[in-house]
Design goal:
- The complex is a heterodimer of chains A (432) and B (305).
- Chain A is an alpha/beta fold and 432 residues long.
- Helices cover 47% and strands 10% of the residues of chain A.
- Chain A has 17 helices and eleven strands.
- Chain B is α+β, with helices and mostly antiparallel strands.
- A six-stranded mixed β-sheet of chain B has the order 3-4-5-8-6-7.
- The chains are: A alpha/beta (432), B alpha+beta (305).
- Chains A and B meet through helix 16 of A and strand 7, helix 7 and helix 8 of B.
Chain lengths: 432, 305
């Protein structure tokens, strides 16, 4: 008799405490819900009541979790969308996060995602990408483009840390799901600096090979485009040495495997692969053609300077490197049936001032002339809605541990300190 | 010279002397001045004994006659107050309508100031005993009659916030309120223009503050005035800064922003800003290098032989 009376009393006090905490929390929540009302559309507002309770004070949290039905929990996220296919995403989903399926993560992005984002994926156990305006714009251009005409070149540019690489990855995800062949160079800056081995090219005497970088890239290329490797047949016979050659008509997979195993000639293999793909992408869909997406991150390194030196300590120009030379040929718009999507990057670039972010400044005269004409796509910091979404996502993932960061004053401080820049925000929230 | 002799103050005298006798000496005390001799020459004790060799004061042989006579008087007042209290109590319980002496806005004289008043040296222990005795006098309920005596040994403090000059708010052609201010820290100088009804964007030398100050510490310094007054997203700032390093530029900007915000605030908020230290210019500058030393403090390596 006595224990049940005691436990009843405890339950009553807990309920009272919970109510008090809720009332205290509601005052702060009122302003937050007003912001949510303003930013997110009407149909999601019914779920805001549950969101309020979910993101409220700690004591109420556990009790509400028990009371909530499981299917309601998925819909209560205002910042998430269930539409995981980039082709179906539209302006309605702007600012919302969609989940990258784990299988896609391993196949499409063995090497493409930014390092910090990869760590985030590992920590949160899921890869969520925000649907943002530049990526949506690019995808709409890709949908509307005519692929019988020469390849269109798109250039993503913006301030440091504003989300250019992530927009590029979003676009690549779209291309992969649509069945395109994606040629993703994760960071072109890595090819012009810190080269451990530089071999003189066997094909062309004045050029230099980079075996390690080339073989790494071929390995990742193989992972990304498994299904195309057996379908595409070579149009030409390639002779590597007196004894070895790849015959005409053999599948692309054989060439790639040869490049991975024979590291010495891997740069030439890269050149051959690029040439084949360029020639064959021009075919139409009916005759087993495919669309080719060339995605290069840090395209300004192709026309800048390198830090690689020859044995006589003279610097190597970018066009003397086989990989860069072949890549420049890909960027020329003399082939049909695909698109070139490039990103400017100051972060890894050599000999460029840190305040430069515009295409003219980073590409230089030569680069701008080669890229011209291109479609520039500016990427800016988070808007109010996007910031709101990011903040809610971090709260949902329990990434913001400091109690003050969950209040409104804390949020204003975070906005000021990061100025809504995505990478700065991420680094700031990492230690909160 | 066109000056009015009736309203010629000491300030005017100083000004005239500085004009008539220009001096390039660095030490202000070495320059020519014209003041009352009492202000220039320190007070000396007059001869303490008469022609017969007998001292005038009965406490002369204590060595510190003024100090001990002061203590003597104070103790007499304490005893008188206690006697009065006993008398009042014996007449019957009287409601306490005697107010204590108000001590707000003043402080006890420092030891040096007391020495100057008494024209003789006293030790720290003596000074402590004196303050203890005065506190005891103040703790008695009937001490209002000794108010003048106590005030002689207290110094009035100036209200610091009344010294703060707040510029009036200016309005531009759209009716938006704005204000400008300067700030300095070490060798960095800056000017800030704060506009109301903004979104919290600040541009420094034409660049965004996020790119001008990549380090979090500097941005926190910028945030401090806004965060203190809870006006984080309210103002837009346009700043120009030059000189110094990154930390001193951030400090200069912080001071300038606080000064610019004064025109938008009430008096209570101004006082709280002053107490928080936002309006105090940081006096620390680089200390000069001395000859015979490697730096300001660092000495050359000492070699035994």
């Amino acid at each position: 008799m006595a224990p049940t009376a005691v436990s009843n009393k405890l339950k009553a006090t807990h309920r009272k405490q919970f109510q008090e905490l809720q009332e205290a929390g509601e005052k702060g929540e009122r302003e937050r819900t007003m912001t949510l009302h303003r930013l997110f559309p009407l149909r999601l507002r019914q779920t805001i009541a549950q969101v309020r309770l979910l993101h409220g004070s700690g004591c109420g949290h556990q009790l509400e979790e028990v009371a909530m039905e499981p299917e309601l929990r998925k819909e209560t996220s205002v910042f998430r969308t269930q539409v995981n296919d980039p082709a179906c995403q539209s302006e309605r989903h702007l600012g919302q996060y969609y989940t990258l399926p784990t299988s896609h993560l391993h196949t499409i992005f063995p090497h493409g995602l930014p390092a910090r984002y990869q760590q985030q994926v590992k920590t949160f156990n899921e890869g969520c990408v925000m649907v943002r305006q530049p990526a949506l714009e690019l995808i709409s251009y890709l949908k509307a483009a005519d692929y019988s005409k020469p390849a269109v070149r798109y250039l993503l540019y913006g301030l440091k840390g504003s989300g250019k690489t992530m927009s590029l990855c979003h676009t690549i995800h779209y291309c992969s799901t649509q069945g395109w062949l994606v040629l993703h160079i994760p960071d072109a800056h890595l090819w012009v600096k810190n080269c451990k081995e530089l071999l003189p090219s066997s094909y062309h005497t004045s050029r230099f090979d980079q075996p390690i970088e080339a073989s790494n890239w071929l390995r990742n290329f193989r992972t990304t485009n498994e299904r195309f490797l057996s379908k595409i047949k070579l149009r030409q016979r390639y002779t590597w040495t007196k004894r070895e050659s790849t015959e005409k008509g053999s599948p692309l997979g054989e060439l790639v495997d040869m490049g991975v195993s024979r590291v010495k000639s891997s740069s030439d293999v890269v050149g051959a692969v690029l040439k084949e793909l360029r020639l064959q992408a021009a075919e139409t869909e009916e005759s087993e053609g495919f669309r080719l997406a060339v995605a290069i991150d840090g395209v300004n390194s192709l026309w800048g300077r390198t830090t690689i030196k020859k044995e006589d300590k003279s610097p190597v120009a970018p066009e003397e490197l086989t990989l860069i030379h072949n890549l420049r040929k890909m960027i020329d718009n003399n082939w049909c049936g695909g698109a070139v999507i490039a990103t400017l990057s100051q972060t890894g670039s050599l000999y460029s001032p840190s305040s430069a972010y515009l295409p003219k400044e980073l590409l230089g005269e030569e680069g701008f002339d080669s890229m011209d004409p291109f479609i520039p796509v500016p990427v800016s910091n988070y808007s109010e809605k996007e910031f709101e979404s990011c903040y809610l996502y971090y709260l949902d993932r329990h990434w913001l541990q400091h109690p003050h960061s969950k209040t409104d004053e804390g949020k204003k401080e975070i906005i000021f300190l990061s100025n809504r820049n995505p990478s700065v925000l991420e680094r700031l929230c990492a230690f909160l | 010279m066109g000056e009015d002799p009736e309203t010629f103050t000491q300030q005017d005298i100083d000004r005239s002397i500085a004009y008539l006798f220009p001096s390039g000496l660095f030490d202000k005390r070495a320059r020519p001045l014209m003041k009352h001799p009492d202000e220039i020459f320190p007070k000396q004790q007059a001869v303490q004994w008469g022609a017969d060799g007998r001292p005038f004061h009965f406490l002369f042989y204590t060595g510190k006659q003024s100090y001990y006579s002061l203590m003597h008087d104070t103790v007499a007042k304490v005893l008188a107050a206690e006697k009065q209290q006993v008398l009042l109590l014996s007449e019957g319980p009287v409601p306490q309508d005697t107010k204590p002496i108000s001590l707000v806005g003043s402080r006890w004289l420092l030891k040096e100031e007391l020495e100057e008043l008494l024209v003789e040296t006293i030790s720290d222990h003596d000074y402590a005993r004196f303050i203890q005795l005065m506190e005891r006098l103040l703790s008695l309920p009937n001490c209002l009659s000794e108010k003048d005596f106590v005030q002689r040994y207290r110094k009035q403090l100036e209200i610091q916030s009344s010294k703060q000059q707040v510029a009036p708010l200016q309005y531009d052609e759209n009716g938006v309120a704005y204000s400008t201010a300067d700030g300095r820290r070490k060798t960095a100088t800056c000017t800030v223009l704060l506009r109301d009804c903004g979104s919290g964007s600040i541009s420094i030398n034409g660049r965004d503050y996020l790119h001008y100050f990549p380090v979090l510490q500097d941005r926190e310094q910028l945030m401090f005035p806004f965060h203190f007054l809870d006006m984080l997203g309210r103002f837009d700032g346009q700043c120009t800064v030059g000189g110094g390093g990154r930390s001193s530029q951030a400090g200069a900007l912080r001071l300038a922003i606080s000064r610019a915000m004064l025109s938008f605030l009430s008096e209570g908020q101004v006082e709280s800003m002053r107490q928080a230290g936002l309006l105090t210019p940081d006096p620390r500058v680089k200390e000069r290098k001395k000859p015979g030393q490697e730096g300001a403090r660092r000495k050359f390596t000492w070699k035994k032989r």
